[in-house]
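User: Hello, beginner here. Can you help me understand these amino acid letters and fold codes? It all follows right here:
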Amino acid sequence: MTAFAIIGHLARTDGGFSLNDLPGSGGRMDVLCRCVNASLFLSHDLRRDVDCYLVLLGAPSGPKTVKFSGEAVRSLSPDERSAGALIKKVIDIPCGSEFREGADGVSVRKGGLERLAGEHRFAVMDEQGMDVRTVDALPDAFLLSDHLNFAAAEEELIRDCPRISVGPKCLHADHTITVLHNELDRRISGWK
């Protein structure tokens, strides 16, 4: 099982955003929706062995974590609005410290990176990190940030995590996920 976690520093923690304005009213929810799609979609199929976590830190009631499970998700199409509609649906359901499913394969709980960091051994995606092609054994969990850098408190939580880079240029989070999937696919299949 592979896990991707993306920090949404401004992402709304209630359904009070418009699907017609994911970047503005959603607090750059568009970035997170693209990451969901990059994490889960293949051409004509889903990656059933992937979980995608969205750590929502914006107003009004953060932090919350939304989990998309590739094994169980339904009603997800490969566009931002589809992922946004599922996020909007689940983040308003009452939840506590454990994940509560609000749609097939999509669940929510209170809490953020601190809790996730205790559950997964993340590699942090960082353009200054080790080249992914030189890392012998890749981990099964990857942490990315949205359009903003990690905050100081987040850096403190992840200070001991390995840092990995997918190349010499700074890529968008969803593009980084795609490159990581390609590298993992090549390694798993032995394809050269």
Observations:
- DSSP finds five helices and ten strands in the chain.
